[in-house]
């Protein structure tokens, strides 16, 4: 790992720790100072109805966890021996006070850890669901775009978006998910056709740095200016989909008409499309939204191919969506412990109308599931990835479908998604099936 990437990973955590510690010091020392100023005879309220000073470590532990609460405890313990009058310390058991404060802080810290874990699980689930929804929305938008333009394009542009993206997937598979000259050229030609751009460049982003020269371009070649206002906005603003010249204020200047990031569903910028010239009538929200939809769709294809490349090399008949989802669900299980399962339906080819059986089983799966039909010499395997499928449901699900299809000799296998590499996991399951 390079020093730059290591620094990027460590610095945010270090700065967060420093901010939390400073906030901790401010709250704890502030409460000690208030007690000393207003109640000097007993600043820590040993003899009062309630020890108000221990609110500091309790609040800190609930907010930031036990270790920050322990720092607050240590500050109060030092304060006990520094500002509390010796006469009071002699009349009460300060050690019981300190022990109770530390134990209460521990309980609050444990509550923080538990609630943080459950919150992280909920966030991961929502993030995965949002990503699936975005992918689905983009896919349907591309289908709508292709359908709307099919009639007007059939004479002069007799090729559909589906065909173009099939070619792009094939190129990306060969290039291991990297944006190369072939895939970028094909894609920018698609944008030229559908968005009427006449001069533009496609600039890759690697390690948060923009390539100086375009990997593909339309019209006359040009270099990018990193200090251009539209370029800086495209890199810093994650909320907007594109940045155009008509969004600038009167005092701002740019050399470009539009700068659009090629951004994946989880917010990674893979490249920038920089447009210097396009048809005047095309510089409108509708065309720019089409531009962004195509960019996002291509970005997700690139990202999915990149993470699932080795799997697709091993199992070439596997759909890209299945392979990429396998890796995403594995990461979800490692980071949050959320269970998913791989179910395999084995349909013997000796059964009459086995294709109809396969179709019937496929129709009964959830829309959330990912399917892969893998064919061998004597059987057809339907592999189904089921996200968010708890261990309690697996036995019920397998028993239900084994009974339902018992007369058709359909055999079911199940495998929880673990931290095992998806290739190894799939190979083990397939070997087990063939062994039986």
How would you summarize the topology of this molecule?
Blueprint: H1 3-38, H2 55-64, H3 66-83, H4 86-91, H5 94-153, H6 161-174, H7 181-195, E1 197-206, E2 209-210, E3 216-218, H8 229-236, E4 243-244, E5 258-263, E6 269-278, H9 285-307, H10 309-314, H11 320-336, E7 341-348, H12 354-363, E8 370-375, E9 379-386, H13 391-404, E10 411-416, H14 422-435
Antiparallel strand pairs: 1-2, 1-3, 1-6, 4-5, 5-6, 7-9, 7-10, 8-9
Helix pairs in contact: 1-2, 1-3, 2-3, 2-5, 3-5, 5-9, 6-7, 6-9, 7-9
CATH homologous superfamily heading of the largest domain:
GAF domain
Rg over CA atoms, rounded to whole Å, is: 30 Å
- General form: flat
Q: How many angstroms separate the termini? A: 44 Å
- Pairing-aware structural class of the strands and helices? alpha+beta
Order of helices and strands: HHHHHHHEEEHEEEHHHEHEEHEH
Description:
The chain has 436 residues and is of the alpha+beta class. The chain folds into three domains: 3-122, no CATH class; 159-307, 2-Layer Sandwich (Beta-Lactamase); 312-435, Alpha-Beta Plaits (2-Layer Sandwich), CATH 3.30.70. The protein has 14 helices and ten strands. It has helices spanning 3-38, 55-64, 66-83, 86-91, 94-153, 161-174, 181-195, 229-236, 285-307, 309-314, 320-336, 354-363, 391-404, 422-435; strands spanning 197-206, 209-210, 216-218, 243-244, 258-263, 269-278, 341-348, 370-375, 379-386, 411-416. Strands 1, 2, 3, 4, 5 and 6 form a six-stranded antiparallel β-sheet that branches. A four-stranded antiparallel β-sheet has the order 8-9-7-10, with helices on both faces. A hairpin with a 2-residue loop joins strand 1 and strand 2. Mean pLDDT is 78; it is low at 154-158.
């Amino acid at each position: 790992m390079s020093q730059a990437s290591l620094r990027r990973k460590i610095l945010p955590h270090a700065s967060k720790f420093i901010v939390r510690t400073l906030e901790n010091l401010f709250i704890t020392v502030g409460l000690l100072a208030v007690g000393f100023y207003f109640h000097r005879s007993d600043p820590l309220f040993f003899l009062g109805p309630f020890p108000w000073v221990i609110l500091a470590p309790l609040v800190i532990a609930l907010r930031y966890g036990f270790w920050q609460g322990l720092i607050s405890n240590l500050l109060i313990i030092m304060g006990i021996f520094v500002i509390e009058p010796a006469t009071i310390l002699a009349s009460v058991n300060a050690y019981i006070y300190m022990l109770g404060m530390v134990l209460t802080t521990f309980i609050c810290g444990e509550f923080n850890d538990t609630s943080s874990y459950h919150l992280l699980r909920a966030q991961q689930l929502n993030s995965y669901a949002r990503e699936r929804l975005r992918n689905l929305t983009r896919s349907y938008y591309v289908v709508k775009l292709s359908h709307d333009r099919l009639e007007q394009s059939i004479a002069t542009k007799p090729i559909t978006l589906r065909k173009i993206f099939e070619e792009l997937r094939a190129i990306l598979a060969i290039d291991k998910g990297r944006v190369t000259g072939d895939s970028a050229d094909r894609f920018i030609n698609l944008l030229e056709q559908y968005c009427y751009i006449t001069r533009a460049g496609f600039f890759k982003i690697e390690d948060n740095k923009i390539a100086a020269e375009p990997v593909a371009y339309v019209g006359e070649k040009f270099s990018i200016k990193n200090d251009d206002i539209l370029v800086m906005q495209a890199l810093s603003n994650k909320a907007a989909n594109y940045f155009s010249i008509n969004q600038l204020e009167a005092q701002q200047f740019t050399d470009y008409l539009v700068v659009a990031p090629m951004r994946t569903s989880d917010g990674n910028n893979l490249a920038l499309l920089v447009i210097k010239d396009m048809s005047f009538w095309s510089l409108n929200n509708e065309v720019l939204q089409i531009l962004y939809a195509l960019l996002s769709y291509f970005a997700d294809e690139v990202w999915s191919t990149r993470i699932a490349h080795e799997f697709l090399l091993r199992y070439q008949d596997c759909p890209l969506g299945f392979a990429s989802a396998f890796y995403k669900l594995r990461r979800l299980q490692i980071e949050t412990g959320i269970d998913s399962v791989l179910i395999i339906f084995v349909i013997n080819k000796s059964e009459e109308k086995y294709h109809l059986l396969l179709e019937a089983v496929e129709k009964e799966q959830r829309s959330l599931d990912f399917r892969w039909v893998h064919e061998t010499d004597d059987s057809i395997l339907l592999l189904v990835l089921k996200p968010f499928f708890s261990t309690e449901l697996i036995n019920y699900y397998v028993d239900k479908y084994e009974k339902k299809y018992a007369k058709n000799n359909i055999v079911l296998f199940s495998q929880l998604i673990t931290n095992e590499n998806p290739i190894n996991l799939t190979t083990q399951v397939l070997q087990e099936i063939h062994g039986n």
